[in-house]
């Protein structure tokens, strides 16, 4: 019998997880604890497995997600994750089949797009995904920042305090919701996310982090920093690295105070920022920005448009204007010629017979939707075609945003 791809049921979870961990080169088996932990956080109707003679050789699942669009509206999307095909069965079309099924189901559910964070760049463009949110990471030499190490936080009227996991679960979700609606690219976090982040639910590789909350002068929780630190000493000198797991702040004061706290902490000689926004303010918060060395600058969240009017009508635009885009999509979901009309009272996006200004593929539309990429740049690369002179610059004026999108979460 050949390989069969289908949704999995509860009894197959251990085998499915073994397949996934093998595909990710993590482990040849899945521990009982990790299987039980996963059971509570998986929608089996959205979990596919490819089986060959009872052995799971392909894994794929999705979950409901909301991603913030420019202007603050949240688009319902299908987040794709845990994609693997066993080395023994690669390049036979198993991923292609699972992706086709998922995109069909997502469109039927009414999702505006599919999203994912891609393990390798070349995998998902062929399925209509484009890199929509990028990320950057810095390594900070704390001794060189020029920040005054005599003080733990700048004098801005607020305070920083360590917090335990239970306090974070109580206070941080509301903070995160404020951050989510204020910044496009941010995705929602459910209760399970917070339980996993704070050790209330633990995977076998869990290490306990430190949590620090920033409160404004009037006592509002405006920021959260979660980090781990190692314990390295050489010749009686601390050489410790602090690694940021999470830093979300609802105000510039909170953001400044939390970075200042971490970068001036005794014994912390290096800080690894983890993945941040590509235009994170961090380097410029330092009297000497060169103390922050960029270690990653790369694509991060990929987006596959499924419902073009829903996406273009829900976001806001920097200036009023109109644009006709001709979208090519072999799978059909985003295909068509669309008239975007952005005005003071909102935007409309309708099918049109007018001449197109720009022609592009679904993945390129995905790249432009959150305002991170430039149509002029894509035109220079031959990835979008200007059907009318100046159309790419007009698209940029409409679609680009003053701050770049940011997604704090890997999923
Ligand atoms: C959202 C996430 O979970 S990201 C994690 C993705 N998983 C991994 O990277 C784990 C290791 N890799 C794998 O498990 C597999 O190789 C996968 C899932 C990336 C690909 O699965 P496959 O079943 O081999 O893909 P499939 O056979 O459908 O390939 C379709 C096409 O994509 C191409 N392709 C697939 N993977 C890659 C890749 N990593 N690099 C370049 N091209 C690729 C294939 O060559 C094929 O091209 P063709 O149509 O021109 O022949």
TrEMBL record:
<dbReference type="InterPro" id="IPR041380">
    <property type="entry name" value="Acetyltransf_17"/>
</dbReference>
<keyword id="KW-0808">Transferase</keyword>
<dbReference type="InterPro" id="IPR036527">
    <property type="entry name" value="SCP2_sterol-bd_dom_sf"/>
</dbReference>
<dbReference type="InterPro" id="IPR025559">
    <property type="entry name" value="Eis_dom"/>
</dbReference>
<dbReference type="GO" id="GO:0034069">
    <property type="term" value="F:aminoglycoside N-acetyltransferase activity"/>
</dbReference>
<dbReference type="InterPro" id="IPR022902">
    <property type="entry name" value="NAcTrfase_Eis"/>
</dbReference>
<dbReference type="GO" id="GO:0030649">
    <property type="term" value="P:aminoglycoside antibiotic catabolic process"/>
</dbReference>
<dbReference type="InterPro" id="IPR051554">
    <property type="entry name" value="Acetyltransferase_Eis"/>
</dbReference>
<feature type="binding site">
    <location>
        <begin position="83"/>
        <end position="85"/>
    </location>
    <ligand>
        <name>acetyl-CoA</name>
    </ligand>
</feature>
<feature type="active site" description="Proton donor">
    <location>
        <position position="124"/>
    </location>
</feature>
<feature type="active site" description="Proton acceptor; via carboxylate">
    <location>
        <position position="411"/>
    </location>
</feature>
<dbReference type="InterPro" id="IPR000182">
    <property type="entry name" value="GNAT_dom"/>
</dbReference>
<dbReference type="Pfam" id="PF13530">
    <property type="entry name" value="SCP2_2"/>
</dbReference>
<feature type="domain" description="N-acetyltransferase">
    <location>
        <begin position="3"/>
        <end position="150"/>
    </location>
</feature>
<dbReference type="Pfam" id="PF17668">
    <property type="entry name" value="Acetyltransf_17"/>
</dbReference>
<dbReference type="InterPro" id="IPR016181">
    <property type="entry name" value="Acyl_CoA_acyltransferase"/>
</dbReference>
<comment type="subunit">
    <text>Homohexamer; trimer of dimers.</text>
</comment>
<feature type="binding site">
    <location>
        <begin position="91"/>
        <end position="96"/>
    </location>
    <ligand>
        <name>acetyl-CoA</name>
    </ligand>
</feature>
<comment type="similarity">
    <text>Belongs to the acetyltransferase Eis family.</text>
</comment>
<keyword id="KW-0012">Acyltransferase</keyword>
<dbReference type="Pfam" id="PF13527">
    <property type="entry name" value="Acetyltransf_9"/>
</dbReference>
<protein>
    <recommendedName>
        <fullName>N-acetyltransferase domain-containing protein</fullName>
    </recommendedName>
</protein>
């Amino acid at each position: 019998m050949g390989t069969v791809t289908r949704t999995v049921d509860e009894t197959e979870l251990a085998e499915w997880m073994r397949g996934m961990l093998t595909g990710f080169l993590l482990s040849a088996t899945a521990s009982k604890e990790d299987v039980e932990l996963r059971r509570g956080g998986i929608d089996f109707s959205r979990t596919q497995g490819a089986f060959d003679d009872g052995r799971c050789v392909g894994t794929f699942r999705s979950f409901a997600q909301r991603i913030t669009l420019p202007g603050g509206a949240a688009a319902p999307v299908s987040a794709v994750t845990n994609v693997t095909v066993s080395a023994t069965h690669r390049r036979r079309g198993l991923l292609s089949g699972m992706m086709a099924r998922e995109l069909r189901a997502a469109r039927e559910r009414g999702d505006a797009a599919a999203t994912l964070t891609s393990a390798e760049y070349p995998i998902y463009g062929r399925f209509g995904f484009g890199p929509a949110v990028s990320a950057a990471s810095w390594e900070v030499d704390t001794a060189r920042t020029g920040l005054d190490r005599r003080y733990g936080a700048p004098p801005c009227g607020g305070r920083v305090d360590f917090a335990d996991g239970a306090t974070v679960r109580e206070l941080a979700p509301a903070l995160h919701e404020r951050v989510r609606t204020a910044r496009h690219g941010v995705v929602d976090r459910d209760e399970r996310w917070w339980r996993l982040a704070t050790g209330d639910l633990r995977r076998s590789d869990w290490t306990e982090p430190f949590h620090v909350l920033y409160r404004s002068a009037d006592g509002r929780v405006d920021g959260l920093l979660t980090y781990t630190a190692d314990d390295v000493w050489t010749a009686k000198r601390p050489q410790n690295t602090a690694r940021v797991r999470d830093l979300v702040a609802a105000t510039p004061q909170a953001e400044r105070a939390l970075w200042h706290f971490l970068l001036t902490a005794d014994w912390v000689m290096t800080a690894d920022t983890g993945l941040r926004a590509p235009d994170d303010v961090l380097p410029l918060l330092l009297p000497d920005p060169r103390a922050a060395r960029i270690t990653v600058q790369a694509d991060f969240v990929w987006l596959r448009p499924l419902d073009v009017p829903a996406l273009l009508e829900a976001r806001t635009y920097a200036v009023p204007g109109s644009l006709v885009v001709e979208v090519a999509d072999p799978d059909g979901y985003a295909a068509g010629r669309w008239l975007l009309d952005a005005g003071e009272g909102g935007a409309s996006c309708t099918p049109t017979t007018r001449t197109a200004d720009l022609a592009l593929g679904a993945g390129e539309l995905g790249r432009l939707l959150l305002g991170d990429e430039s149509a002029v740049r894509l035109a220079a690369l031959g990835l979008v075609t200007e059907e009318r002179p100046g159309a790419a610059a007009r698209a940029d004026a409409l679609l680009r945003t003053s701050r770049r999108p940011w997604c704090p979460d890997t999923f």
